[in-house]
Write a structure and sequence with these properties.
It is a single chain. With 341 residues, the chain is of the alpha/beta class. The chain folds into 2 domains: 6-121 and 304-339, ATPase, nucleotide binding domain (Nucleotidyltransferase, domain 5); 129-297, Nucleotidyltransferase, domain 5, CATH 3.30.420. It has helices at 37-41, 48-70, 89-106, 115-121, 165-175, 183-192, 214-230, 236-262, 277-288, 300-303, 308-319; strands at residues 6-11, 16-23, 27-35, 79-85, 110-114, 133-138, 143-148, 155-159, 266-270, 294-296. It is globular. The chain binds 5'-O-[(R)-(carboxyoxy)(hydroxy)phosphoryl]adenosine and zinc ion.
Length: 341
C-alpha cells in the first residue's frame, strides 16, 4: 500500500498568517488562518509593516495549532511548502524564513509555491482537476485567465493592465465610505440594488484576454462626485449593482470566449473575488447552458487567502521534483510560468 503524503503549507503573502496540512494532495487535515483584517481596517487597507509584525507574532502559534489539529509531528511530514511570491516582501519573508527553519531543523524538502498557483489549486481540494483547463483568477492583486495543459503548467493568456478586480472593488467601496476589504460589502449592497447607472466595460482590442478596471473605477468615482456637486442623490445600492454588473459582464464574457477558443472541459475559479455572489451566479448560469464544460468554484473559505491551497499546490510541485534550498528568498514579483517545462 502506498504511504500517505503529508505536506505542510505556509502562507504569509499579505494579511493572513496561515498554515495547513494536506493529505495526499487533496484532503485538508488542518487549516489554520489568523486574519489581521481588524488591525488594517482603520487604515483603509493593508499596511505592510503592520502585516509583517503580525506574521512574526503569529507564525509559530499557527504552525503549532496546525500540527495539533492534524495530530501529527514534524517527522511524519513529507515536505514544507511555502508561498515564495508574489506579495508584500516583508510579509513573504516571515513565511519563507519559518519554512526554511523547519526544513533545516527537521531535514525536510522545501517546496516553493507561487501564490496564484495556490489559489488555482484550492480547486483540487474540491474536486479532481481535469486538463486542459482554464482558471479565472480574481484576487485582490491579480486578475488573470490561466490555461493549464497539465498539473503544474501555467500559461497566462490574459491579465489586468492596471487594477485587479479586487483592488477595484476595494477602491469603489472606499469611495462609498465602506470599510476594508470592501469587496464583500459592495457584493451585499449590489444584491439590494439595480444596475441602472450606465458604466463602461473595458473590452480592449478584439481578441485580447487582458482586463482593465481602472477606467471603471474612475467612472464610479466621477459619478459620485458629479452627483454631489449637482446636489443629486445616487442610491449606493444601485451604484454597487451597476459597478458589479460591469465587472461581471467582462469577466464572464472573456472566460466564455477563452473556453471556446482553447477547447477546455473544465473552468476553475480562484481568488478572493471568487467569493462574489453575483459572479458565482453569473458563471453558474452561463455554464449551466454548456453541459460539456464543468465549472468549479471553491467554497468561500478556500477563495480568500489560506495555506490549504499552498499545501495543495505544494503537493503537485513536490511530486514534480521542484525543490528550493536554504537560499530561497521572498520574490514579490514572482512569475507563475517560472516552473513550467
Ligand atoms: O485572494 P485574496 O484573499 O487576496 C489576494 O491574494 O489578493 O483577495 C482579496 C480580495 C479583496 O480585494 C476583497 O475585497 C475581495 O478579494 N473580495 C471580494 C469578495 N470577497 C472578497 N470581492 C468581491 N466580492 C466578494 N464577495
Ligand atoms: Zn491571494
Amino acid at each position: 500500500m502506498k504511504k500517505d503524503q503529508w505536506i505542510l503549507g505556509i502562507e504569509t503573502s499579505c494579511d493572513e498568517t496561515a498554515v495547513a496540512i494536506i493529505k495526499n494532495g487533496c484532503e485538508i487535515t488542518a487549516n489554520v488562518v489568523a486574519s489581521q483584517i481588524e488591525s488594517h481596517k482603520r487604515f483603509g487597507g493593508v499596511v505592510p509593516e503592520i502585516a509583517s509584525r503580525h506574521h512574526v507574532e503569529e507564525i509559530t502559534i499557527v504552525i503549532e495549532e496546525a500540527l495539533k489539529q492534524a495530530n501529527l509531528t514534524f517527522p511524519e511530514l513529507d515536505a514544507i511548502a511555502v508561498t515564495e511570491g508574489p506579495g508584500l516582501v516583508g510579509a513573504l519573508l516571515i513565511g519563507v524564513n519559518a519554512a526554511k527553519a523547519l526544513a533545516f531543523a527537521h531535514n525536510k524538502p522545501l517546496v516553493p509555491v507561487h501564490h496564484i498557483a495556490g489559489h488555482i489549486y484550492a480547486n483540487r481540494l474540491v474536486t479532481e482537476m481535469k486538463f486542459p483547463l482554464l482558471a479565472l483568477v480574481v484576487s485582490g492583486g491579480h486578475t488573470e485567465l490561466v490555461y493549464m495543459k497539465a498539473h503544474g503548467h501555467f500559461e497566462v493568456i490574459g491579465e489586468t493592465r492596471d487594477d485587479a478586480a479586487g483592488e477595484a472593488y476595494d477602491k469603489v467601496a472606499r469611495t462609498l465610505n465602506m470599510p476594508y476589504p470592501g469587496g464583500p460589502h459592495i457584493d451585499r449592497l449590489a444584491q439590494e440594488g439595480s444596475p441602472t447607472i450606465n458604466l463602461p466595460r473595458a473590452w480592449l482590442e478584439e481578441g485580447s484576454y487582458d482586463f482593465s478596471f481602472s477606467g471603471l473605477k474612475s467612472a464610479v468615482i466621477n459619478t459620485v462626485h458629479n452627483a454631489e456637486q449637482r446636489g443629486e442623490v445616487i442610491m449606493p445600492e444601485d451604484l454597487a449593482a451597476s459597478f458589479q454588473a460591469s465587472v461581471i459582464e467582462v469577466l464572464v464574457k472573456k472566460t466564455v470566449k477563452a473556453v471556446a477558443e482553447y477547447g477546455v472541459g473544465q473552468v476553475v475559479v480562484a481568488g478572493g473575488v471568487a467569493a462574489n455572489k453575483g459572479l458565482r451566479q453569473a458563471l453558474e448560469k452561463e455554464f449551466s447552458e454548456k453541459p460539456d464544460v464543468e465549472l468549479v468554484i471553491p467554497p468561500l473559505s478556500l477563495c480568500t487567502d489560506n495555506a490549504a491551497m499552498i499545501a495543495a499546490a505544494g503537493s503537485v510541485m513536490f511530486d514534480r521534483g521542484i525543490r528550493a534550498d536554504l537560499s530561497l528568498n521572498a520574490n514579490p514579483g514572482l512569475d507563475i510560468e517560472i516552473y513550467n517545462h
